[in-house]
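Example record

One chain of 405 residues, shown exactly as stored in the release files.
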Amino acid sequence: MRIIVQKFGGTSLSDKQKRISAAKMALDAKNKGLTPVIVVSAIGRKGDAYATDTFIDFANSISGSTEARELDLIMSVGEIISAVIMANTLKSMGCEAVALTGGQAGIITNESYGMADIIEVRPDNIKEYIRNGKVPVIAGFQGASKCGEITTLGRGGSDTTAAILGEALGAEMIEIYTDVDGIMTADPRIVRTACKLEFLSYSELLQMANHGAKVIHPSAVAIAMRSGIPIVIKNVESDSKGTLIRSRQEMGIAYNNGRRAVTSVTHMTGRAQIDVCYDTGCIGEEILRQIAENRISIDMINIFPGRMVFTIDEKHLSRIREILTDKNVKFAATDNLSKVSVVGELMHGTPGIMYRIIRALTERSIKVLQTSDSHMTISCLISAEETVKAVTALHDEFRLGTLTG
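Predicted structure tokens for this chain:
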């Protein structure tokens, strides 16, 4: 049994014609001797009738807020509706199909509502439906606890559903269908010359996803990487082959031929920088402990004797201020910032990358407030007002619009 997992995002299911196109992808897979297992997101985006945010706003409009357990219940509805509609679309085209919730598909989680961790996957139910000749259509973004409580996996969780089911079922491919032709060298909404990448390594895509690229959730990439299942990012309404993601070693010559040191430019908005001064090292350690206990993720961080500078999502700014005020330390907080990053698996050991980044930004009078780097990523913190200019400058500097770098 050659299983292929096909995940369809909300925008690729937003109208009848797109759903028919999605169904044709599954039928095409069957005609090629493959066994499709479909994962769906809620239909549309915020403001659309069946989008997750629409259900959240509806619930909160009654009493101002909703308890975490009930919030997971209503957040799961959009994907369940989508699964039923997609299953019926397949049936209307002569293909037997069955809609399943995440729990019915065997995804078992803890009870951390809103951001549940997957404990195990029991795919026996899916396999039974496949043996009976039906295409399983599974509601993404959700699971169930051992006690039967409905849980959600966090935003972007439908990608995680596709990847974890692919691993559990031993799939030979995971196809992620969206509204773009593949992974681009930058966000095409702000960089007109952005190009589609034919190949990417798991590691590069993981870095891109962690640094702001929104085409796929980082956890899905990590799961596919550990299980060695190739991913293809495609457009449901295009004949484009999309972007193939595998390990660099598996792609071999096809990947390395003419490869650039820098592959892409990503960006994250809504960042805030915190600059803290303190008298003793134990105070700094205590601050970091409290931040961790509040489940606040620190991004870029530089630590010096008696001082540290780090960035956070600015939605946590008020809580950070409370923590630091309680510790009676001096601090400065700056919001309305963005992080712009260049990514490339071959960047490590290539001289001059940082120089070119700083030069490109300085020439355009863009002030760099902080930097961080790893083997395949260099990030710069800048004013949010400069985001488009900075991303475009770096994209031009590394000639990513020509795919020759």
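Notes: The mean pLDDT is 92.
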